[in-house]
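Recall the central idea of this unit: under ordinary conditions, the amino acid sequence of a chain determines the structure it adopts. In this exercise we apply that idea directly, starting from the sequence alone.
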Amino acid sequence: MLHKLKARTLVTWGRDDRVSPVDMMLLPMRTIPDVEVHVFPDCGHWVMIEQKQAWESAVLAFLTREDDA
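Accordingly, the structure predicted from this sequence is:
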């Protein structure tokens, strides 16, 4: 059902995630039509906690970016 998403989508992932390894990010990356992916280095499963400032910056940049249309 990911291919049916209409909204611009941000996917964040920790490079060192042992719960959901980074290669699991390939499915949403290849399936969601308008997706942006951020992989955070030196980070495990809890990106928003382990890399709080970098994650917040990525999310804010994504949410405030003007659409190309």
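The chain has a mean pLDDT of 93.
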